[in-house]
Automatic annotation (TrEMBL):
It holds the Pfam family PAS. The chain crosses the membrane at residues 12-31, 327-347. It is an enzyme of class 2 (transferase). It catalyses: 2 GTP = 3',3'-c-di-GMP + 2 diphosphate. Its cofactor is Mg(2+). It comes from Vreelandella subglaciescola. PROSITE patterns: GGDEF, PAS. Keywords: ATP-binding, Kinase, Membrane, Nucleotide-binding, Phosphoprotein, Transferase, Transmembrane, Transmembrane helix, Two-component regulatory system. Gene3D superfamilies: 3.30.70.270, PAS domain. Signal peptide: none annotated. Residues 520-655 form the GGDEF domain. This is diguanylate cyclase.
């Protein structure tokens, strides 16, 4: 009996050991999968943050180039390339370089590819290089690409190392070149602005985003490293090391990266996550609200496409595994030594519950960390709209302390009156379990207004009643500002602020439709500054610009609020007078002519410019939308008659002036 008991004891001990070993092994498989998932999730989140950083940097560079192209010092040299204006351009480039501190070089290159002005940046500030060391860049790819740019486009070069006189600069300087074509006041191309963005700053910030457990890397489209923990592997194609590629080191990984974008992979126990992105595609990965930058940025070759690659070696992603800790090993040895099935199952059950609770606490802590430290704002509200939780970013947006909002403030209280309808729609979508996005104007603590994009998600009860609502809040103030700036550029003349031809056509079409419905005549005035070329030749283009601005200013004062004044180009202006008869149009034109003749322009040097205008008048008694081109043509013909008749006069489109 004792022997049988011993046999059963041995038998069940063996069974328990086998079961225990099997359970431990099977438990390790999903546990390792959880660790892998956590690592890959961390990789993707950090790569997303890195992508946003990259997008922000590139947008900053585009905006710098736009501002510099419009700088008065640059414009003056473009219009009149004198030595004095060249000094002004140099000062403008030096100021830009000193203010931003992110450009190794800023250059102005003429249409033949020769550097005309170049500013380098050193530790003690920016300085203009001597004329003797200016170089021809006619054979450079970025010059060729820049000369091929359309209007309002810029070009980004692939990231590479800076060269001086054909030799790599030491220490190595990673650089991205942005090229902006500049034109004169007539819209004719005159040269290129080239900004050498110091990409080393971006590479260092990209590396700093990742913890020591991870190894972040950047590669170009051919698999060469732009960033690697082992510095001797980088820039292989430029340093005569063509073998230093990911394809040569890990061909299976490189092949998958070529065919399957944005995935993960495990090789030899190491975990890899990667993402491919276009170096200038600033309209993806969370910045789609920044407007259609593809209209502003020239598409570049495939060599300007990058890969983000993050590697976590096996020891690093296993470092937190419970089964590697000493206490766990002692626990396993104890279980095997006890060899008692019932005791073992009790202990195993309790241990599993304990591990489960610890995992839940860890998961809750991770979710809380993601919520609190998200790169955008988050707010949680109850069914009544009462704020029950907010994260750090939303507090930073609005300037409040957490205790000022929690359980004592409604989401509606933070929204501007004009956005309340949008918030009501947002709350309705919460109650319906829908996912919607709205733009809202939020009130900050100190009175400022913040434009945000809100997206919502909700948790409903079994009876479809709202229990908890969550709302993400993203600051889109920069996007809104950019949209408004683009709208102003699209509809107004940059010199005078008047409507441009495109905006004039839209306003005229609207007025014609109204007059067709309500009845009434429509009169057009074609206006031209007399002998304007002589003004430019004698006093300079800057003086001519002052004359045009003066004309626009006085014209707006003399016209009604319903009249439309537009600049069609050069010294040509057009006025549309809805509801005005031919006689009223003649009187208005005469009053405008006399007022401008009595409004001289005084220059800074004290010189006074007296100028006159010739005006043609044409009227439609019963206007139709299709008659607008003919009306403007008749007004132009009357204008030319006024010119031929001696200038400084008004002519009406009729057989005799």
């Amino acid at each position: 009996m004792y022997r049988a008991m011993r046999k059963r004891q041995i038998k069940w001990t063996v069974i328990v050991f086998i079961l225990l070993a099997g359970i431990l092994y099977l438990g390790k498989i999903p546990y390792d999968e959880i660790l892998r998932t956590e690592v890959h999730t961390r990789h993707m989140q950090l790569m997303k943050t890195a992508s946003m950083l990259r997008q922000e940097k590139l947008l900053d560079v585009v905006q710098d180039a736009r501002r510099l192209a419009l700088n008065s010092g640059v414009k003056s040299y473009i219009e009149t390339p004198t030595a004095d204006h060249r000094n002004k351009m140099q000062r403008a480039l030096i100021n830009t370089s000193n203010v931003y501190g992110r450009y190794d070089q800023i250059r102005y290159i003429d249409l033949q590819g020769m550097e005309q002005v170049r500013v380098d940046y050193a530790d003690d500030g920016a300085y203009a290089v001597a004329d003797t060391i200016l170089q021809s860049k006619a054979d450079s790819t970025y010059v060729t690409e820049g000369l091929a740019l359309d209007e309002d486009q810029v070009y980004f070069s692939p990231i590479d190392l800076n060269r001086e006189n054909g030799t790599l600069e030491r220490p190595l300087k990673p650089v991205i070149r942005l090229v902006q074509k500049v034109t004169d006041s007539d819209g004719e191309p005159q040269g290129l602005l080239v900004l050498n963005y110091a990409a080393g700053e971006f590479l260092n910030q990209f590396r700093a985003l990742f913890p020591d457990l991870d190894q972040p890397m950047l590669l170009n489209n051919e698999g060469y490293w732009l960033l690697n923990a082992q510095a001797d592997k980088t820039w292989g194609w430029l340093l005569g090391q063509p073998q230093q590629t990911l394809g040569a080191e890990r061909p299976a990984l490189w092949k998958k990266m070529q065919t399957t974008p944005g995935q993960t992979m495990e090789l030899d126990g190491d975990l890899f996550s990667y993402q491919r992105f276009d170096a200038v595609n600033v309209a993806t990965n969370g910045l789609s609200s920044y407007a259609d930058e593809r209209k502003l940025i020239r598409g570049i070759s495939t060599s300007a496409k990058w890969f983000m690659l993050v590697q976590t070696r096996s020891p690093q992603w296993h470092v937190g595994a419970a089964y590697l800790r000493p206490w766990f090993r002692v626990f396993v040895v104890g279980l095997f030594l006890m060899a008692a099935m019932l005791v073992y199952f009790v202990i195993a059950s309790r241990e599993q519950r304990r591990v489960s609770r610890a995992a839940q606490r860890g998961q809750l802590a991770d979710f809380k960390d993601l919520y609190e430290n998200a790169p955008i704002g988050y707010v949680t509200v109850s069914a009544s709209g009462l704020i029950t939780n907010v994260n750090h970013m939303l507090l930073a947006y609005l300037g409040y302390q957490r205790e000022e909002l929690l359980n004592d403030c409604y989401f509606m209280d933070l929204v501007d009156d004009e956005s309340r309808a949008g918030l009501e729609g947002l709350m309705h979508s919460l109650g319906a379990g829908e996912h919607e996005q709205y733009r809202l104007e939020m009130r900050c603590k100190h009175g400022e207004r913040l434009t945000v994009l809100c997206s919502v998600s909700s948790r409903l009860s079994t009876s479809s009643m709202l229990t908890v609502g969550r709302c993400s809040v993203q600051d889109i103030s920069q996007q809104v500002s950019l949209e408004r700036s683009l709208e102003r550029l699209a509809y107004s003349d940059s010199l005078t602020g008047l409507a441009n031809r495109r905006h004039f056509d839209e306003l005229a079409s609207r007025e014609l439709k109204r007059l067709q419905r309500e009845g009434g005549p429509l009169t057009a005035l074609a206006l031209d500054v007399d002998r304007f070329k002589a003004v430019n030749d004698r006093y300079g283009h800057a003086a001519g610009d002052k004359v045009l601005k003066s004309l626009a200013r006085h014209g707006e004062k003399l016209l009604r609020g319903t009249d439309i004044l537009a600049r069609f180009g050069g010294e040509e202006f057009t006025v549309l007078l809805p509801g005005a008869t031919q006689e009223q149009g003649r009187n208005k034109a005469e009053a405008l002519r006399q007022a401008l003749a009595e409004a001289p322009v005084t220059l800074q040097a004290g010189e006074v410019i007296h100028y006159t205008v010739s005006i043609g008048v044409a009227t439609l008694a019963r206007p139709e939308e299709t008659q607008l081109p003919a009306l403007l043509k008749r007004a132009d013909e009357a204008l030319y008659q006024a010119k031929r008749s001696g200038r400084n006069r008004v002519c009406v489109a009729e057989p005799e002036c």
